[in-house]
Amino acid sequence: MKRALTASLLLMTLAGCQTVGNMWDDLFGSSGPKQVPAALVQFNPAIDVKLRANANIGSAVGSIFTPALTKDGVFAASYDGKIARFDTDTLKEIWRVDTLKKLTGGVGAADNVVVVGTSKGDVLAYDFNGKALWQARVSSEILSAPQISEGLVLVRSGDGRVFALSAKDGSRKWLYQRDTPALTVRSYGGVLTDKNAVFAGFGGGKMVALELQTGGLGWEASVALPRGVSEIERIADVTSNPVTDGREVCAVAFQGRVACFEPQSGNLIWAREMSSIAGMAIDARNVYVSDVNGTVHALDKTSGAYVWKQDKLANRELSAPLIYRGYVVVADLQGYVHFLSREDGAFVARIATDGSPIRAQPVGLTDGVLVQTKKGGLFVLSLN
Question: E strands within 68-190?
Fold first, then answer.
């Protein structure tokens, strides 16, 4: 992986850039030796997972789109500018609009507002009936799904800034920016909103807590500290969304650590060496992390002690995990969705989709799991 990253970095440096390109491509082989995905192990399924419904929104190309779930349906987007609303149970298409722009970030949906972002930093807002509401612009490309909370649209731009826009008209309410390292990984990480706070991770292994309505800095903490001699070795970026259960907030860094903090003070609770670009999940007992090697880790939420790990998915470029009905759900580069036991990480079910990578974290529905593939396939999986 380091050889692939080094080759990509050299190309980016010659071009005068300071950001390593697409994380999965750079780390897993488009610019260097391809890591061979582990063969799928055989097991006796403990639960029955079936495909209940499917649809297609259009290809993601080099972006990662996360479908948004609301009580009014599922909203999804594609690189070629399409946004659509689907029925949650059947994925029957209710409407589809063409933004006439190349989309790279989305989807955020709440309070009758659907938001996506473009490679030029355009923020586009529509209502739940597909009517255009407003358009705004931030400082650079938008690679993650905007978040909507308390009348604000929170947008993370590719240059590491966090913008708060009015959900009503797109006007800017506040901006948070900080110094970034000389070299960072191109990140698809967004922000996490919880109660009156916004949590965001940055290059150099930092995470901050911001006041939701003003953008004021509550605290800054180190998820990971850059180490090594070369600039490549010293990359230690938080490239995925933080997670919280209300009592602690956790994040994980590439070439760094997974760490949990007190949400109010930012005091460190525990940390453990780990490297991840996909991200993590949290439940009442554990923190779950998909690492860069394709291992899923379960760590005790209060101490960071190991509970179990599943390492039979090596080099399968896993998505961030979803905790659903007592199972840990991860998806991979070949479009498979794997269900693991929350107790010991054993395989309990597996199902194929359309064969293309699933980069976005699966979404839990009231009765099923929703995934979106790189080819634009939307699949609802039901458990019996």
Answer: 68-70, 73-77, 82-86, 93-98, 103-110, 113-118, 122-126, 132-137, 147-149, 152-156, 162-166, 172-176, 184-185
